[in-house]
Amino acid sequence: MSSVLIVGSVALDTVETPMGLREEMLGGSATYFSMAASHFSPVRLVAVVGDDFPDELRRLFESRAVDIEGLQVSPGRTFRWSGAYHGMMNEAVTRETQLNVFEGFRPMLPDRYRDTPFVFLGNIDPVLQADVMTQIRAPELVALDTMNFWIDGARNRLEDVLARIDLLIINEGELQLLSGKSNVAAGIRDVMQMGPRSVIIKRGGYGSVLYHDSDWFFVPGYPEERVVDPTGAGDSFAGGFMGSLARDGEVTARTLRRAMIYGSVVASFNITDFGPWKLADLSAGDIEQRFNDFRRLVSI
Amino acid sequence: MSSVLIVGSVALDTVETPMGLREEMLGGSATYFSMAASHFSPVRLVAVVGDDFPDELRRLFESRAVDIEGLQVSPGRTFRWSGAYHGMMNEAVTRETQLNVFEGFRPMLPDRYRDTPFVFLGNIDPVLQADVMTQIRAPELVALDTMNFWIDGARNRLEDVLARIDLLIINEGELQLLSGKSNVAAGIRDVMQMGPRSVIIKRGGYGSVLYHDSDWFFVPGYPEERVVDPTGAGDSFAGGFMGSLARDGEVTARTLRRAMIYGSVVASFNITDFGPWKLADLSAGDIEQRFNDFRRLVSI
């Protein structure tokens, strides 16, 4: 079994949805990713928190055996994000972003992280994503997430790093902005020419799509009636996906498809409660049963 | 092999998309439905046209052996619709609707149509849909389509007929309006309580969902790069679906799932050209190959 490296954010999130309000709960892309991936393979985390970061939140990572030697502590306050979801809850409306110590984040990989075979570059400045790539050695697969802020504001830097990764994982709105195409097939074709040999498009409640080696693979969104908080759905999808790939230890059409389902499985659980605790509490049985449910959703 | 009855509209459509403009071409729900269904089973059509309806358009139905004894000709002009599609082309913007002879349409089933086992009530006034139900005898399955105009303006009449049908086929926006729920699982649960024992939700480029006997089935949208004209996609889906069910001759979890794929297959071809001619020209080989493509899109 291989390991997974995640470089991203650990944050304190304040989230309001039609189902309620939670203040300063544990969040961030690296948090959701690592909780999800930890069910499949060992996880190494690189992120930064402030000296106000509560010890009891750190214990959640330890409970899932996530390696947090790479979790830097900087003087100052932890990154804080506040947002709300309305209606179909497909997109967050950001109320406030306080970067705090995240503003000065420089990812530093502990030496024993540098040979991690499966690497996920979470949504941070493409310059930092490129810097991580100089610190890793001979990875099996490097996947990258990004967002409109970087596509709009740092396109050249983003294209530099896109040319060097294997897999791009973005949502449909980001694909449209990056490619200028509203048609998903046309957009993916454009994005492949920027470098990645595989692309995953996350479509919120509509599921996700993988394009790899001229082959399409679709996973539907799970028909969950009780959506409580979509925060972290994309990151937990990516975590389950990368964790499953690392567990299988190789990248083939078959392992990629399995990984798409496992990513969808953990994301489908994540949205049924606030924060990352639901992810932490999943059993292997929960995951396998939902995996089979996903198969049944499309079997003829 | 059973037959399919479609009651709906035959129209002259003027359509503009980013791919071009076509004026007064053959259109209408019964047209797209019958072209699609005719590849799977015999089709009987009930609709109305004016005395201006060109003979050469009538020949398209004959070329597919669609039974048009039920196509009434009334003095006056044929129903005309004009609309445009922009961007992702998921929804038409209506420019003009001239009901013309369609305004006085009273569906009259020729006597030999009355035992048709598979019946599709296209999107017309729910009073007329209910009237058709009094003319049919012991159908195997009755499916119904409707639209926001009737959900908003004739809810009581619509609920009367919903209580008497087997299968509701609507799009996601219509489900939201009908149920008041933005969550698709919650919306379907509400709609089932109005009567139908099965529901299909059409989701444009995201494919479609079937809910039947507490079981979900998802079909993705085909990743077509060259979408020319989405007009009739929903009606050709319904036609392929009902035609496949009629060909199988019985309603089971298995035949419903096959029918969902065949509906998606014909709809995926329909959108690659203006008008219903692409549907008319499909070969059995085209259809079987695309059916297998659809299986591959989701196979693990």
Please give a handful of descriptors for the protein shown:
alpha/beta, UDP-N-acetylmuramoyl-L-alanine:D-glutamate ligase, homodimer, 300 residues, 11 helices, 4-stranded mixed β-sheet, 9-stranded mixed β-sheet
Detailed description of the structure:
Two copies of one chain form a homodimer. By secondary structure, chain A is of the alpha/beta class. Chain A has a single domain (4-298), classed as UDP-N-acetylmuramoyl-L-alanine:D-glutamate ligase, CATH 3.40.1190.20. The first copy, chain A, is 38% helix and 25% strand. Chain A contains eleven helices and 13 strands. In chain A, the strands form two sheets. A nine-stranded mixed sheet of chain A has the order 5-4-1-8-9-10-11-12-13, sandwiched between helices. Chain A has a four-stranded mixed sheet with strand order 3-2-6-7. In chain A, a hairpin with a 2-residue loop joins strand 2 and strand 3. In chain A, helix 6 crosses helix 7 (184-192). Chain A starts with a strand and ends with a helix. The interface between A and B is medium-sized, with 34 and 33 residues.
Secondary-structure map:
Two copies of one chain form a homodimer.
Chain A: E1 4-7, E2 11-17, E3 20-27, H1 29-37, E4 43-50, H2 55-63, E5 67-74, E6 80-85, E7 92-98, E8 118-121, H3 126-135, E9 141-144, H4 148-153, H5 155-162, E10 167-171, H6 172-179, H7 184-192, E11 198-202, E12 208-212, E13 215-219, H8 233-248, H9 253-270, H10 277-281, H11 284-298
Parallel strand pairs in A: 1-4, 1-8, 2-6, 4-5, 8-9, 9-10, 10-11
Antiparallel strand pairs in A: 2-3, 6-7, 11-12, 12-13
